[in-house]
């Protein structure tokens, strides 16, 4: 048996999945030439409610298999031993019982083992049916081998069976799970085109869900509306899928319209429907509508679940409405819904956002006393809270406490501590922490960490050390983004290394990066600081040619650069242009103008500028 399992795993990793799309198209066309009626030459005909054997031992085993197909076995060995026992039974149990055992393995997520047992069944000439094939197709889809799943579709046809709607639903779901939505949609369209099956509500819901997860609510709504025209009535799950998608895209009124539509059609909303709508309304601060929906739930006898309450607590906390969040927690306890680590972590985050870290710590300790173990997210909230209050030592204590709680710090944890050290000016400890706790322990770094490190070093004049660390990060495989390069360019220029900054800037296209408005602004400021106004102006005009429009920061910074370098005419041109684009002079620009007037500068261009724009 162990040999079969390992051999199956080898098989799973030996096939090329590059032809999945071709397989999908081929099998859809091929199947269209087969009759949709069962093959009369096949003696087996599946029976949904197969009767128990008259043999008491067989009947007990069949009852056990039925139960385990719903929940799975407690141990994998129990399933394997039972399978071996079934092979030795005379007469053999019906195929439905073997399929139930495979289904139990699927429930346990032992997909490779199910594949191995299926192969053993074929070797032993145990008959199979379309349900068995569907179970195996599901296994291969979970193993991200949808190419093998399509091979089994051919097996169904070869054995004289007709693929059913479950077969195709499983394949469509498998394609979507492997980020092959276009292929899934093609398969769906061809099923209708060749009239292979009548897609059911599950088929439509799977496709709609895939489209929603791709962030295309308008396409999803179009398909949703098309269901009725095709004679397929959406169910609660379908409505929940589309409502959740609309809410995530802030199209809450449209989602509310669907709620009213489903109730008019006699389709009952559930707690998931309302939770999605409540989340959507919270995201756009429509608190009155939130309360109306909560009342509507009570009227419909739909109880808020832990997820609903956690949404409310999190939303109230993010808006600084801690008292409302505490009221929700009190209400949920009264109704027998006890807060979990997610709920308490949201409350902790709310206190930290208000700067009340000690209260967040009190919630943290209270949670532990109640037997609710904090998770990494809980620790990250507290660590971030203490760092923002400049209590980095307390944050480090919590960081060091995590392993004793069985928790591994995340990259967010490390990044927060690193930023905390820089924020309080302890750059030596920051560098030590980075090398000893992150580099030496092979922590997987990201661009956020890189930005924190390089910004902290550049701010403290360790610009060449920043470059050295940057090279280490690049050699470790990190692909730096434009923000990272902007920090380095800014650090180099402000520390008197304009040529190095210019070199980095000029090499951006070779790295596949385009400067953004901040990158251009930093470089223009560097030129102005060195009195190179021609270069600054050339770069400023180049921005628009590269579809990067200057913003108010760019204009104000360049105007101040012109004023400091006594190019008052150019400053005036830029002021006119800035106001024409709807931007205003900021306080720093106004202050420079006033300072120039105080020294009684008599340049005509400056006097004209001051006369035109001074209050």
TrEMBL record:
Pfam families registered for this protein in UniProt = PPR, PPR_2
Among Gene3D superfamilies, the record links this protein to: Tetratricopeptide repeat domain
The residues bearing each PPR repeat, given as ranges, are: 129-163, 164-198, 200-234, 235-269, 270-304, 305-339, 340-374, 375-409, 410-445, 446-480, 481-515, 516-550, 551-585
Q: Which domain of life is it from?
A: Eukaryota
Alphabetically sorted, this entry's keywords are: Repeat
For this entry, the protein name equals Pentacotripeptide-repeat region of PRORP domain-containing protein
């Amino acid at each position: 048996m162990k040999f079969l399992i390992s051999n199956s795993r080898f098989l799973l990793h030996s096939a090329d999945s590059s032809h999945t799309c071709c397989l999908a198209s081929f099998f859809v066309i091929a199947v269209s030439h087969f009759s949709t009626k069962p093959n009369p030459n096949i003696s087996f005909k599946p029976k949904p409610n197969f009767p128990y054997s008259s043999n008491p031992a067989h009947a007990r085993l069949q009852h056990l298999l039925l139960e385990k197909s719903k929940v799975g076995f407690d141990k994998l060995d129990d399933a394997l031993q039972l399978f071996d026992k079934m092979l030795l039974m005379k007469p053999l149990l019906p195929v439905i019982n073997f399929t139930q055992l495979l289904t139990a393995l699927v429930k346990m997520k032992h997909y490779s083992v199910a594949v191995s047992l299926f192969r053993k069944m074929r070797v032993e000439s145990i008959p199979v049916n379309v349900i068995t094939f569907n179970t195996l197709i599901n296994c291969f889809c979970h193993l991200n081998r949808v190419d093998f799943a399509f091979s089994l579709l051919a097996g169904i046809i070869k054995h004289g069976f007709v693929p059913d709607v479950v077969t195709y639903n499983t394949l469509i779901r498998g394609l979507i799970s492997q980020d092959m939505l276009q292929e899934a949609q093609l398969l769906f369209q061809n099923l209708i085109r060749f009239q292979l099956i009548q897609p059911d509500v599950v088929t439509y819901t799977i496709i709609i869900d895939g489209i929603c997860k791709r962030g295309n609510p308008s396409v999803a709504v179009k398909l949703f509306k098309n269901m009725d025209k095709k004679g397929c009535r959406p169910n609660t799950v379908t409505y929940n899928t589309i409502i959740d998608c609309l809410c995530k895209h802030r199209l809450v009124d449209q989602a509310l319209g669907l709620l009213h539509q489903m109730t008019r059609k006699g389709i009952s909303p559930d707690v998931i429907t309302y939770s999605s709508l409540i989340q959507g309304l919270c995201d756009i601060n429509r608190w009155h509508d939130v309360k109306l929906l909560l009342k509507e739930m009570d009227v419909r006898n739909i109880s808020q679940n832990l997820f609903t309450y956690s949404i409310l607590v999190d939303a109230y906390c993010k808006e600084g409405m801690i008292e409302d969040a505490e009221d929700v927690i009190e209400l949920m306890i009264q109704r027998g819904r006890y807060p979990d680590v997610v709920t308490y972590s949201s409350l902790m985050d709310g206190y930290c956002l208000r700067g009340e870290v000690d209260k967040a710590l009190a919630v943290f300790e209270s949670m532990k006393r109640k037997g609710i173990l904090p998770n990494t997210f809980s620790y990250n909230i507290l660590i971030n809270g203490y760092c923002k209050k400049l209590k980095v030592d307390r944050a480090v204590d919590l960081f060091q406490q995590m392993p004793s709680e069985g928790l591994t710090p995340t990259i967010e944890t490390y990044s927060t501590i690193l930023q905390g050290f820089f924020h309080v000016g302890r750059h030596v400890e920051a560098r030590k922490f980075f090398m000893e706790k992150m580099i030496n322990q092979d922590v997987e770094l990201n661009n956020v960490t890189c930005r924190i490190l390089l910004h902290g070093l550049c701010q403290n004049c360790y610009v060449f050390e920043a470059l050295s660390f940057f090279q280490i990060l690049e050699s470790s495989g990190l692909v730096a983004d434009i923000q990272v390069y902007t920090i380095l360019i800014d650090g180099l220029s402000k520390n008197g290394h304009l040529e190095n900054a210019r070199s980095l800037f000029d090499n951006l296209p070779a790295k596949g990066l385009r400067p953004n408005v901040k990158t251009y602004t930093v470089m223009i400021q560097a030129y102005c600081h060195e009195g190179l106004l021609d270069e600054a102006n050339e770069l400023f005009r180049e921005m628009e040619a590269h579809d990067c429009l200057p913003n108010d920061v760019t204009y104000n910074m360049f105007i101040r650069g012109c004023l400091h370098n006594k190019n008052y005419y150019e400053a005036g041109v830029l002021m006119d242009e800035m106001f024409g684009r709807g931007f205003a002079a900021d306080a720093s620009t106004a202050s420079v103008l006033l300072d120039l007037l105080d020294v009684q500068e008599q340049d005509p261009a400056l006097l004209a500028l001051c006369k035109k724009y001074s209050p």
